[in-house]
Amino acid sequence: MKNKIQLFQKQSVRTHWDEEQEKWFFSIVDVIAILTQQKDYQGARNYWKVLKHRLVKEGNETVTNCNRLKMIAKDGKKRMTDVADTQQLLRLIQSVPSHRAEPFKIWLAKVGAQRIDEIEDPELSFERAMETYLAKGYSREWINQRLKSIEVRKELTDEWQERGMKQGLEYAILTNELTQAWAGKNVKEYKKYKGLKKENLRDNMSNLELVLNMLAEASTAEISKEKIPKGLEENKDIARKVRTICIINGFFP
Fold it and tell me: Is residue 23 situated within a structural domain?
């Protein structure tokens, strides 16, 4: 459901899933009401109004440039509501002086420190990934395949970068073409097929799917090094042809 209600410390927060952007949006007033323990909606609305004004004066654009969406109010009618995506919401929580916000602030500080450590020693990111996947119940065989797929993906994106492709939109376009080539579906279709929203597609692949995906990405990187494509269209052409090339070489059925 696009507008399902999610629980936040046993209280309701209105949410909206944007399929186009693949983002969750959260009602800011609902979150403010919980963090500041406001007695009613008007109290939370006034608190947000004051906080937003202060953030504007501080020059904070991350939180103050929030979207507005129609959400169902307590009277059952849809009304325009300030909403924040996950990044904006976490930034907002940092600005709320409340004991309820403190656990989030501690967690954010911890994540930030870990990220700095990983920049200094990239091997730590693999160790933490292993720990996280084990805690989620994945098998060691699957985890080894998944970590290998991260390495293969990095080699491919390095090659795309070498060919002048831009991280973000162009990487996404090429990934779509490549996924369509080996799986018969683009990324969005594949996620929908698996019933996923924000979840990582590769984290929900089987061992076989991971192997096929790695084969396609590794082959694309090798072909790119040989052909030295120029521009987005030539890189897309290689991604489209990778399945045919792999079939000819007996890699794909």
Answer: yes
